[in-house]
Design brief:
With 70 residues, the chain is an alpha+beta fold. The chain has helices at 2-6, 31-40, 56-69; strands at residues 16-19, 44-47. It has one domain (14-69). It contains 3 helices and 2 strands; from the N terminus they run H-E-H-E-H. Strands 1-2 form a two-stranded parallel sheet. The two termini are 22 Å apart. The model has no long low-confidence stretch (mean pLDDT 89).
Length: 70
């Protein structure tokens, strides 16, 4: 985050956390830990799979809705 802000990302930028490879069924970071990390920073958390498309649309819909809201 420091790097993003250092190089000009606005404080109003939309950030999401995507736990990918949901289709594999094994997670390096437990879901609850990822959710807590994201929540503590005010980010939305999504479990996704690029392989089968799980929740990919939801991530982009969330980002889009945040952008058009403001």
């Amino acid at each position: 985050m420091d790097e993003a802000y250092k190089f000009g990302v606005s404080e109003s930028a939309v950030f999401v956390v995507c736990a990918n490879k949901m289709d594999k069924g094994q997670f390096t970071v437990p879901t609850v830990e990822g959710q807590m990390w994201a929540e503590s920073r005010g980010f939305e958390f999504f479990e996704t799979s690029a392989a089968d498309g799980t929740n990919v649309d939801a991530v982009f819909e969330h980002i889009f809705s945040c952008l058009v809201k403001d």
